[in-house]
């Protein structure tokens, strides 16, 4: 039976960061005496200087570890310090680079990890996966474990750049095609899809897809986006892999990262990938496009800096990024002419 780890707590509220010590005190004995390593970035430090100064006053034994680059080497070096200097608890406060580095460092050092995102750009806030740079700056996904606690302050998230929140919307949309690819693999290989993991991923998608909120900076929408991304992360933990939230659309994104170094947010790239995957899967993409346009999330190749040649090349290389990942791409032969037609079709509807 597949084992999995649920967080000890999940808190999504307004103005909750200031109550961090109270929340942790309910989970850890003598929290005020714990030796804590606090991962963040210089940017987050300056944006939330008031909140962080209060935190420094409340925790008497806290060390700040600034992340400038989310590399595998950085995470392992941090884990080494954590282990040698006997830190008790790891807290990550920031975006994906900070949280992934802190998450992997805590996993290697076998310490509890609390995830406190400053934006909601992807499901990494709750997933058992850390995306870190390796050789030549290439991003690679490393298995680790789900955070032991997740605190999401709605007021802090409201300060996030609009594009990053839009990326979170895009990342959730990718569940639409990922779930199809997962079921397709099960049919072809006579495998079993974990029903609960499937349900969580599907629920994560539907929370947003059918919301009545029209403003993505609305408190309730932010709460729904947070719930959606957390459920996606937990779905992967229960499944024991990323299948509930990662299919052919993610292979496209991996190819953009590994071969073309496209700097657009991950969530935007997988959303564009999902629209294309819908065509491969012979499904309508109208519901996805209507949803993205409602929040002015532009995932057109032009907006993401993806030329026609890059679009075609990334899809032609997509399967090679994860050869063991079965998807719709395994069921037919892609051609450059076919992708050329799709590129212009997509440009016409986005």
Q: How would you briefly describe this protein structure?
A:
With 350 residues, the protein is α/β, with parallel strands linked by helices.
CATH topology of the largest domain: Dehydroquinate synthase-like, alpha domain
Describe the main β-sheet briefly: 6 strands, parallel
The CA-CA distance between the termini, in Å, is 44 Å
Q: For this structure, what is the CATH homologous superfamily of the largest domain?
A: Dehydroquinate synthase-like - alpha domain
Mean pLDDT: 94
- Helices, by number, come to 16
Query: CATH top level of the largest domain?
Result: Mainly Alpha
Derived structural class = alpha/beta
Total domain units: 2
- Overall shape: it is globular
* CATH architecture classification name of the largest domain: Up-down Bundle
Proportion in β-strands? 5-15%
Helix proportion range: 40-55%
Low-pLDDT windows of residues: none
Instruction: Determine Rg (CA atoms, Å).
Output: 20 Å
The overall strand count is: 8
Strand order within the widest beta sheet: 1-8-5-4-2-3
Give a description of the structure.
- With 350 residues, the chain is α/β, with parallel strands linked by helices.
- The protein has 2 domains: 9-158, Rossmann fold (3-Layer(aba) Sandwich), CATH 3.40.50; 162-349, Up-down Bundle (Dehydroquinate synthase-like, alpha domain), CATH 1.20.1090.
- The chain is built from 16 helices and 8 strands.
- The protein has helices spanning 20-25, 42-47, 49-58, 72-84, 96-109, 154-158, 162-173, 175-189, 195-209, 219-239, 248-260, 266-280, 286-294, 301-304, 308-321, 336-349; strands at 9-13, 36-40, 62-66, 89-94, 112-117, 129-133, 139-143, 149-153.
- It has a 6-stranded parallel beta sheet.
- Helix 7 (162-173) crosses helix 10 (219-239), helix 7 (162-173) packs parallel to helix 12 (266-280) and helix 8 (175-189) packs across helix 12.
- The protein is globular, with a radius of gyration of 20 Å.
- The model has no long low-confidence stretch (mean pLDDT 94).
